[in-house]
Amino acid sequence: MSEFNRRLLQYLADNRSRFEDLLGSMVEVPSVSMDPERVKDVRRMAELGAQILKDFGAEAQVIETGGHPLVSGGWTTGAKHPTVTIYNHLDVQPAQEPEWKQDPFAFLKDDGIYHGRGTTDDKGPALTALLAAKFAIDQGLPLNIRFLWELEEEIGSPHFAKTLRNRDAIPKPDSVVISDTIWISNDQPAIAVGLRGLLAVRCSLVTGSKDAHSGVTGGAARNPLVELAEVVAACVDAKSGRVKIPGFYRDVLPFSATERKSFLRSGFDVPRFMKAYGFQSLRTKNAAEVMERIWAKPTFEVHGLTGGYQGPGVKTVVPWKGELKASMRLVPNQRPEKVFELFTRHVAKVNPSVKVECDGMLHPFKGWSTGPYVEAIQQAIRAGFGKDPAFTREGGSIGAVVSMEKAWKVPILFLGLSLPEHGYHAPNERFDWRQASGGMKAFATYFAELARMGRLG
Question: What are the Peptidase M20 dimerisation domain coordinates in residue numbering (predicted)?
Answer without folding.
Answer: 193-353
